[in-house]
Amino acid sequence: xxxxxxxxxxxxxxxxxxxxxxxxxxxxxxxxxxxxxxxxxxxxxxxxxxxxxxxxxxxxxxxxxxxxxxxxxxxxxxxxxxxxxxxxxxxxxxxxxxxxxxxxxxxxxxxxxxxxxxxxxxxxxxxxxxxxxxxxxxxxxxxxxxxxxxxxxxxxxxxxxxxxxxxxxxxxxxxxxxxxxxxxxxxxxxxxxxxxxxxxxxxxxxxxxxxxxxxxxxxxxxxxxxxxxxxxxxxxxxxxxxxxxxxxxxxxxxxxxxxxxxxxxxxxxxxxxxxxxxxxxxxxxxxxxxxxxxxxxxxxxxxxxxxxxxxxxxxxxxxxxxxxxxxxxxxxxxxxxxxxxxxxxxxxxxxxxxxxxxxxxxxxxxxxxxxxxxxxxxxxxxxxxxxxxxxxxxxxxxxxxxxxxxxxxxxxxxxxxxxxxxxxxxxxxxxxxxxxxxxxxxxxxxxxxxxxxxxxxxxxxxxxxxxxxxxxxxxxxxxxxxxxxxxxxxxxxxxxxxxxxxxxxxxxxxxxxxxxxxxxxxxxxxxxxxxxxxxxxxxxxxxxxxxxxxxxxxxxxxxxxxxxxxxxxxxxxxxxxxxxxxxxxxxxxxxxxxxxxxxxxxxxxxxxxxxxxxxxxxxxxxxxxxxxxxxxxxxxxxxxxxxxxxxxxxxxxxxxxxxxxxxxxxxxxxxxxxxxxxxxxxxxxxxxxxxxxxxxxxxxxxxxxxxxxxxxxxxxxxxxxxxxxxxxxxxxxxxxxxxxxxx
Length: 743
What we know:
This is Serine/threonine-protein kinase. Keywords: ATP-binding, Kinase, Nucleotide-binding, Transferase. GO terms for molecular function: kinase activity. Pfam families: Pkinase (PF00069), PQQ_2 (PF13360). This protein is of the alpha+beta class. It has three domains: 82 residues, Phosphorylase Kinase, domain 1, CATH 3.30.200; 172 residues, Transferase(Phosphotransferase), domain 1, CATH 1.10.510; 379 residues, 7 Propeller (Methylamine Dehydrogenase, Chain H), CATH 2.130.10.10. 14% of the residues lie in helices and 31% in strands. The strands form eleven sheets. The chain has a six-stranded antiparallel β-sheet. It has a five-stranded antiparallel β-sheet with strand order 11-13-45-44-43, with no helix packed on it. A hairpin with an 8-residue loop joins β14 and β15. It starts with a strand and ends in a 7-residue tail after the last strand.
């Protein structure tokens, strides 16, 4: 077999009882791992059902710790599935070739697999066959593969009576005793067995007979001899016979201190370059190196140690230059110095989403006398010095990155930097130095990114039973009005108007300044409209609704103040509005499997529709547009630049960059050929949009050395000459966008 779908099969990577995994390439040259089932199983209805289940499970869990699914056809003559190719040995191969892992490597493996199981279980999937052969070791951490016998928790597809499904040395007792009741705890048991193998080269239950192993798993105590003393108790709890007594993945990660990411990598040193700080000319490192604080973390540049008090820690100005390095004479010189080669990791994966929902709602915290008022400087008023605000309120909880929005100064009204995080519904910071001007505490479960509407600060606060829209005075944070928007299908800000989509599809518009209703009605032609994109240039907000068969999408431009339609058009395809630029609306085109296959550009003035097909199908695409070029961050760590004005010819990207970022925010593009996005470890990264070159990044900022747990990462906020971003350690920081080599 030479092709699977449109993918050319080049070499055999491995073979199992149910299929063969090939190294393959897409039309653009992207390397993939393609699993093709054996011919004898293709006609078996039960196997096809299982394979469909595998594809569905793999799609469901595609993330930072798995191989993301690129394409699949379970109904083909020979069913197949294509995933991102992940270079690196399996854990089984590593242990066989190099022997047991060192304690440091073992800690890193434990943390990585706990994170992987956390994400897999959050997707509602139980792997059920976690073993050394199904774990790939990469520079960017372990990746879990092969969901052939996994099951969604709510699946109706059950194991048949009398069939043993799994690998006995890594199966939990309940898999032998109660296979229909297997849950996430079974994967934790398998993790314990796998860790014993990684540490000793054998399993906790060892025998040449699978039947004896099965008996030992159910009745005998695990053999933990050879495990590091600090890990043995944790692994022992993973191997508890009672599923209720095993720790959860989150509990496993919480016990791994100090940070496991500082441990040795699995792969030889020459393959660990992605984990090192950026090096500038002459080999200097771009991250600050200095005396460590008592916590063991290096202080920010310009500070000698950790601030002594909480108040002092609110904002820490950073020096913008580095000693011992000649200052480039021009911005172009600085930019050339900052560039560094594009690095590729085939396993890097991005998550879905653009805007992030934080946690929050509650009582306010009054600003101090020195902080009260509207004294925030505009970005053009003073020379900018990078800064770090270590928290944005006394009620803020660490472990979640703050999400921020920036509003420039207009007609003498000062610029506004607003942020929220877990425990803080809204906080206003001085854009010039990061001082917290006011902050409101939070008890709600989620909080939107705060924005300015009608001259007030707005946050949407969601609790278990209610959702409220809360408005505050911009100057001092005094609550002004609130509205109950419980049960709404979406709350969207469009300038000075707030649009609320009711459960029955009707749209209600509220005055952002007063909370009073402007209008309420059903949008013509729409039953369940999806809102979200607002054009500051035209003032319109865009509603979209796909037909039931996904063949067409009704797109409407609505005047948010009056509710009147500016225009309406039915476009071909299942489309999602993403952004606007220079009056044109840009939409992502999705196929039947929700894979992005094209970018559609619609010009309302000329009614011109241009469809720019992507070189290959992508999943989890997050998009930004500038000068008619769409930039897509997709699952697998790939950044694509696509010319949306190009018509005809073979689909082709302007450029493609394989990043080393496992999870990222959506991208934001600014003038001067710059694209920015944030990583899950708190790094802010910038790319030259002219040629797709990585040109700068900040250092990681993690809470207690652990990656944050967030559904989506906050998009950086941009201002002239600077970028604002939040990090998982709870901090907000600002850097000079013109000089990434000083980050």
